Amino acid sequence: MKEALRKAAGTLIAALGAVVLVSLFLDLVPGDPIDAILGEQARETDRASLRQALHLDDPLASRLWYFARDAATLELRTSVPPFQDRVFERIADALPNTALLACVSLLVALLLAFPLGVLGASRPGGKVDAAASGFAVLGAALPRIWLGPVLILVFAIWLDWLPVSGLEEPAGLVLPAITLGTALAAFLARMIRASVLDAVGEDYVRTAKAKGLPGHVVLLKHALRNAMLPVLTVLGLQLGALLGGAVVTEKVFNYPGMGTLLLQAIDRRDYNMVRACVLTFTLAYVAVNLLTDIAYAWVDPRVRGRK
Amino acid sequence: MHVAPAHETVAPIARRPRRPILAGVGPWIGFSVVVALVLLALFAPWLSPQDPRAISLADELLGPSAAHPLGTAENGVDVLAHVVWGARVSMIVGLASTLLSAVLGTLLGAGAGYFGGWIEDALMRVVDILLAFPGILLAIFITSVLGPSLWNVIVALCATGWTGYARLARAQVLGLRDRDFVHAARALGASDARIVLRHLLPNLLGPVVVQATFGVPGAMLAEASLSFLGLGVPPGTPSWGALVDQGTQYLMIAPHVALVPGLAIAVSVLGFNLLGDGLRDRLDPRRR
Q1: Of A18, A143, A152, the CB nearest to B269
Q2: Are the beta carbons of B136 and A245 separated by less than 8 Å?
Q3: What's the average model confidence in pLDDT over B237-253?
Q4: B152, burial (CB in 10 Å: exposed 0-12, middle 13-18, buried 19+)
Q5: Which of A240, B18, B249, B252 has the most Cβ atoms closer than 10 angstroms to its Cβ?
Q6: In this structure, what DSSP letter does residue B3 have?
Q7: Which of A18, A240, A286 sits opposite B129 (nearest CB)?
């Protein structure tokens, strides 16, 4: 637990580092942000007051301080007119949608990967194993920007079974979740197969078999549980990729989440919103990794015992 | 290309009975796809049926026909021509960013592993920060700031891509730096630079090449995603991702506009992955 917290603290520092880096980077944007916001014909007085309101002439350190203060008190406003929208409220609208999409995708990935991985490992080289490996190779190669349109075309336009996307009904999440989750499913299926195969070679599995336990009990109770550990480790890292993939998936499906918010903010040069999105994404990543570490301890009694 | 020297450097482990470089059907399929892609990219001007930017408003969004084997997109642009030229953009980004990332990351990682101390700490902390962040997101920021251009996409992908090679190279060097041949080289008066470049780096080539084979399709996917988001190559440049972006608006009336370039990405990535799997089985001593 202590180790997990120490790691989380380290990643948190990394998250703050990311925000500083992004802020530094935003300074490099070619062109005057005032032009982007007010247009080139704006009056000089308006330009000057906007410069001041956005603290554009202050040194980076004080701008970062303003950002940190406003972000911490949830008072941060968008940096495009009319400057009234609280960034926090927009993120609070978008974040649950992305979280929902990511969770359903994770569920899709796990539901696909576990049966494929375990069945493949139960008879290596068999027909199911070949099919599962085929899926793993294909799934990893399918780009989301292709899978998404194909799914829309087949299931929403031709067959008319499912809506393209939407939050009004659960069916609206199916296609986006499959699009986002397939690559992860392919990766996990490979991982689960390999680690179950490793576990099957261990002494405790031989002991369980020698006790006369039926094959599926040995496989599911003894081998799979131990095979979970490496899977959990990579899962934490893979969830970062899932967040990145969410940006693309949200655009394919016109889904109102963090990715859409971020792309919009980049387009409008809404600096505060961009920074806030970066911060949110990184914090989400930190939180997910912390959760993975806790899950790790829960699955592995050896880690649980170590205080 | 850079496969042959790598294969020689791992000779000590490979001195057992000779095995073919690629075993099985999959890697050979991958190899064929990769060769086809390279040829397509090299000879795009001769293979393309017409100028990928030629506009003909009367022929907008047509299905496949004799004049346009894969149909047309917005403004009557020929999809086949766009896909052929798109291979060039995709390969340039994929190969250039992977090569730059691999060289930069390997040198930094090997240096960090060899010298240790604060250099290693500082570098690995930077790697941790960069890895704390989904790569594609960082690339989105960088291209959104630098503006759309081929070179900026390559820079953005290198900015995130080198970290993996740095980690790999450092880990490998940590395992090598106290081996006898390193001590022997030092005893003979070799400089640090010489030890790293002449004695350590050749031993890293195998794993680095394997990782790079997976880096190329990753970079191709990333370029397609960035161009799809409107943050990749400049508008008008033939790019698979940009064409998919355009096509998603016409899924109802002209699905081929999105599906054809999307399929090109899928096949390319699959090809590189299959080749990479084969090379890894062959070059990675940890696997059989």
Answers
A1: A143
A2: yes
A3: 87
A4: buried
A5: A240
A6: H
A7: A18
Interhelix angle A127-141/A174-200, rounded to 10 degrees, is: 130
A153 contacts B251? CB cut-off 8 A: yes
Rounded Cα–Cα distance for residues A121 and A132 (Å): 10
**CB B270 to CB A138 under 8 A?**
yes
Contacts of B1 (CB under 8 A, 6+ apart): none
Q: Which residue of A has its CA nearest to B146?
A: A29
> What gap in Å lies between CA A1 and CA A12, rounded to an integer?
16
Could you tell me if B269 and B221 are in contact, meaning their C-beta atoms sit under 8 angstroms apart?
Answer: yes
- Token reading at B189: 């008066």
For residue A21, list chain B residues with Cβ-Cβ distance below 8 A: 129
- Beta carbons of B132 and A281 less than 8 Å apart: no
pLDDT category at A73 given cuts 50, 70, 90 is confident
More confident residue, A1 or A194: A194
**How far apart, in whole angstroms, are the C-alpha atoms of residue B144 and residue B139?**
8
- Residue B222 pLDDT level (bands cut at 50, 70, 90): very high
Nearest to A149 among B134, B136, B244 (CB): B244
pLDDT tens track for B142-174? 888 788 889 999 999 998 899 999 999 998 888
**What confidence score (pLDDT) does residue B98 get?**
95
**Where is mean pLDDT largest: A230-234, B2-6, B217-221?**
B217-221
Decide: residue A53, CB within 10 A, 0-12 exposed, 13-18 middle, 19+ buried.
Answer: exposed
| Rounded distance between C-alpha atoms, residue B215 and residue B280, angstroms | 13
Residues of chain A in contact with residue B147, where contact means CB-CB under 8 angstroms, are 30
| CA dist B16 → B13, B22, B209 (Å) | 7, 16, 21
Helix B150-176 to helix B79-115 angle, to the nearest 10 degrees? 30
| Beta-carbon separation of A248 and B266 below 8 A | no
Chain B residues within 8 A of A240 when measuring between CB atoms:
132-134
Q: Are A84 and A75 in contact (CB under 8 A)?
A: no
Calculated CA dihedral for residues B235, B237, B238, B242, nearest 10 degrees: -30
**Cα maximum dimension of chain B:** 76
Buried b (16+ CB within 10 A) or exposed e, B255-267: bbbbbbbbbbbbe
For an interface test with B, the pick among A25, A26, A98, A145 (most B C-beta atoms closer than 10 Å) comes out as A145
User: Could you tell me if residue B220 is left (phi over 0), alpha (psi between -120 and 50 degrees) or otherwise beta?
Assistant: alpha
Q: Look up tokens 């911490």; give the residue.
A: A72
Query: What is the C-alpha to C-alpha distance for residues B178 and A262, in angstroms, rounded to an integer?
Result: 48
Residue A125 CB neighbours (<10 A): 8
Chain B residue closest to A140 (CA)?
B270
pTM assigned to the model: 0.83
Q: Is A242 exposed, middle or buried (0-12, 13-18, 19+ CB in 10 A)?
A: buried
Q: What are phi and psi of A77, to 5 degrees?
A: -110, 160
